[in-house]
Design a protein that fits this description.
- The protein has 1 helix and 6 strands; from the N terminus they run E-E-E-E-H-E-E.
- By secondary structure, it is mainly beta.
- The protein has a 3-stranded antiparallel β-sheet.
Length: 103
Amino acid sequence: KQWYQRRVRISGLDNNQPVTVTWKETSSGPALVGDSSDTDYGIVQGTVSGSGTQDSVLTIKTDKMATLVNDQVYTYKCYAKSIQYSESAESAELDVEATIVAK
């Protein structure tokens, strides 16, 4: 099993005003930490495009992939929080599905 990526696109943003996207394995679980050599995930927040969209990408790394069952759907959770309006609430939680298929 190799790494696997899931992407979420947030739209309707002001230019140069990105949001922070938080990824979780479960609603009640801790926020996933990524982008270091000792984590199971890579997380790219993305930047706001000229059209007001931002893509955040969750990469499931090889070591984590080895612990997942083939042909099973895993549902990750994510939500966005404004950086520009820090007092505003985070968005509703979004389910992002990943189906693991052996190659």
